[in-house]
Amino acid sequence: MKQEFPQRLQKLRERRRMSRKALGELCGLSKNIIGQYERGEKEPTLAPIVALADYFEVPVDYLIGRQNYL
After folding, report:
1. How big is the CA angle at 31 (ends 28 and 36), to the nearest 5 degrees?
2. Cα-trace Rg, the chain
3. What is the DSSP letter of 32?
4. Separation of alpha carbons 47 and 70, rounded Å
5. C-alpha distances in angstroms, 35 versus 15, 43, 69?
6. For the stretch 33-57, what's the b/e string if a residue is b when 16 or more beta carbons lie within 10 angstroms of its beta carbon?
7. Most exposed among 14, 56, 62, 64, judged by the fewest C-beta atoms under 10 Å?
8. CA 46 → CA 14, 16, 49, 61, distances in Å?
9. pLDDT tens-digit profile of 18-51?
10. Packing angle between helix 20-27 and helix 46-56, nearest 10 degrees?
């Protein structure tokens, strides 16, 4: 998860052309946390992973790098 999650999160966010702040507000997280996740500075716990996967309508396994396809 260390490598895939930050890249996939940023890619999904940028595809929707949204800011970190907007994503954070929609998922109950701060823009700073989203930034830390995308830079790989912090690993999320289960609740934020589920919230982000639900928002982007992707499987948790895809978001954390255990599945390579949608």
Report:
1. 110
2. 11
3. H
4. 21
5. 16, 11, 24
6. bbebbbeeeeebeeebbeebbeebe
7. 14
8. 22, 23, 5, 12
9. 999 999 999 999 999 999 999 999 999 999 999 9
10. 110
Q: Quick one: tokens of 27?
A: 């998922």
Residues present in the chain in total: 70
CB 37 within 8 A of CB 31: no
Residue carrying the six token digits 């929707």: 16
Q: What structural domains and CATH numbers belong to the chain?
A: 4-63 (1.10.260.40)
pLDDT 10s digits, 43-54: 999 999 999 999
Residue found under tokens 């309508």: 57
Residues near 23 by beta carbon (within 8 Å), at least 6 away in sequence: 13, 29, 31, 34, 52, 55
